[in-house]
Amino acid sequence: MIAEIENPSGINSAEIVVGIPSYNEADSIYFPVEQASKGLMIHYPHKSSVIVNVDNCSPDGTKEAFLSTPTKVPKIYVSTHEGVKGKGRNVRNLLEVSSGLGAKAIILLDADLQSLTPRWIRYFLEPLKDGYDFVVPIYMRHKYDGTITNNIAYPLLRTLYGLRIRQPIAGDFAISGRLANAFLLESTWDEYVYNFGIDIWMTVVAICRNFNVCQAFLGSSKTHRPKDPASDLGPMFSQVVGTMFNTIRKFEYVWKNIEESRPSVIYGFGLGQTGVKEEVKVSTNLLHKSFIQGFEDYGNVWRQVLMPSNLQVLNRLSNSTPDQLHYEADEWVRVLFDFSLASIFNKEIDNDKLLQALIPLYYSCTLSFVNKVSAMDDAETELYLEDRARRFEESKYYLIERWNQLTRHNGNRRLYQMLSGQRELDDDTQN
Fold it and tell me: How far apart are the C-alpha atoms of 404 and 415, rounded to whole Å?
């Protein structure tokens, strides 16, 4: 997967590797490179270290911008072949390079970070020194930033796998050398993981393979390029959610035996967080319009996937005005469970189409979230999210019951449709 390596300092070993995945980040990569170098020199001057840019052969000059950034820490540039993209491919290249260097600790940083400080390096590495293998950051975010995290990734992760990791697709992580090697040996790398599914995949694998996972306060908010939650999601949504659904199949032996979640160990203290969060504006009318359009575009898929009671919820919501639309927590999680089950058991619907059909419903859930928390401050919003996540956990029996039913009848389309509540079967099935 590695097509090019430039190692101007001839580095052949390093205890600490800071990796920065990129594609067309020439205008932003210099800042995380500078801050990482300062952090390594201030906090770990006696440790051998290197900064690695794992790139997708960016045509905008990212390579030149990275190599020309003045640093006291040596740098290595690594790239995939031209035209080969995906954050997960970059991360795999980073893991392979780090393994070759004998690294004991790897830090992964987004290339568009604007709030990174030298202290982040210490905050990430201290837990690894204490024996943790995977460190996930906690930082202040605007309540409308990270709606995939708030509405899907975080509550599903703790419901399924039992550990409360607030930012499981944070983009920034610390990884021990032994976990990095374990990631490379995993058999579940696929196209979703090779792209934006990589973050949630690493978090789930670290938990399910019994590595030591913790969280760390970074002392400042995360500032990067914010996006309106109603804007085009591109492939990210399908890759993240598709990866989560795939882990349900892979790690059935883990999640079926977990009854409730537990808090993780947290390094640092939240009161030390500072910084101004970027304002995130939400186009609520566009969210509502996309949801209503979903009935026309994906209504047939919804009828194949959702139980009748959950279809009734959607019909009720379709009659709500944009400012009144609201899901109860157990209603939304049952929609997610139905889609996750269909991704595993329904062989008649293309998986990419299935995930596309979920997007208008995700928009409706996002609108419900905005309506609910619009008048809340940060603390109140977190309390609301915590309460909702607990209700997700209370609904887990629904997933287990339907899973057990479908497992007994796996491969029988007629029975799948009956168990999914469909009253009408296709003509070719009836004949």
Answer: 13
